[in-house]
Amino acid sequence: MLGNAVLISHQIMARVIQPGDTVIDATCGRGKDTLFLAQLVGPRGRVYAFDIQNEAIASTRELLDRNKCLNQVVLINADHSRMTDYIEDHPSACMFNLGYLPGGDHSLTTGSKDTRQALSAGMSILKPGGIISLVFYPGHPGGQEEMETIEKYLSGLPQQLFEVTKTRFLNQINSPPQIICIEKLSGGQL
């Protein structure tokens, strides 16, 4: 059984990320993806975790501290579209879990414009062979439009530079999450 969209994105990341790698959690939320990434990169690796909400940063910090993974994570209270302002390394992976903060204010969500900017920034610094995963939630207000906008942008990427795949659940009701993955091929530069 493949499981849910987040589990599938974790399985993809686990095949790419090595101990000591630098990775990005573009939307840390409650910290579950950040913790997962921190455990993959280990104490010699580095995770840059972004969120615009103080509540998300605090929640993530607490989870990381409880699991003794705080030392390899840099928590950044800023919009994910500004990741190149904070990261000089070439990460091997970047995760986006879009939508709103679970248990938080549902009126604060990711949006097409900032996600597209963050995605472009992530693709520009991703090392060749690196992977970006995006989990979309088309069932919430604005989620379908965000997914369609990003999908249209990604479908125009040169295939010699990036390989883009989409995974969706065909037999689930209520607009289930969907996953898009981008692999940066050798020399993939926009």
Query: Can you name the CATH architecture?
Result: 3-Layer(aba) Sandwich
What share of the residues lie within helices?
25-40%
N-to-C SSE series? Answer: HEHEHEEHEHEE
Class of secondary structure makeup = alpha/beta
**Largest sheet, spatial ordering of strands:** 3-2-1-4-5-7-6
Total number of helices: 5
Strands, count: 7
Short summary:
With 190 residues, the chain is an alpha/beta fold. The protein has helices at residues 5-16, 32-41, 54-66, 112-125, 143-155, and strands at 22-25, 46-50, 73-76, 93-97, 131-136, 162-168, 178-184. Strands 3-2-1-4-5-7-6 form a seven-stranded mixed β-sheet, sandwiched between helices.
Any overview of this molecule?
The protein has 190 residues and is of the alpha/beta class. Helices cover 33% and strands 20% of the residues. The radius of gyration is 15 Å and the shape is globular. The protein is built from 5 helices and 7 strands. 41% of the residues are buried. A 7-stranded mixed β-sheet has the order 3-2-1-4-5-7-6, sandwiched between helices. Strand 4, helix 4 (112-125) and strand 5 (131-136) form a beta-alpha-beta unit. The chain has one domain (5-184): Rossmann fold, CATH 3.40.50.150.
Any descriptors?
33% helix; alpha/beta; Rossmann fold; 190 residues; seven-stranded mixed beta sheet; single chain
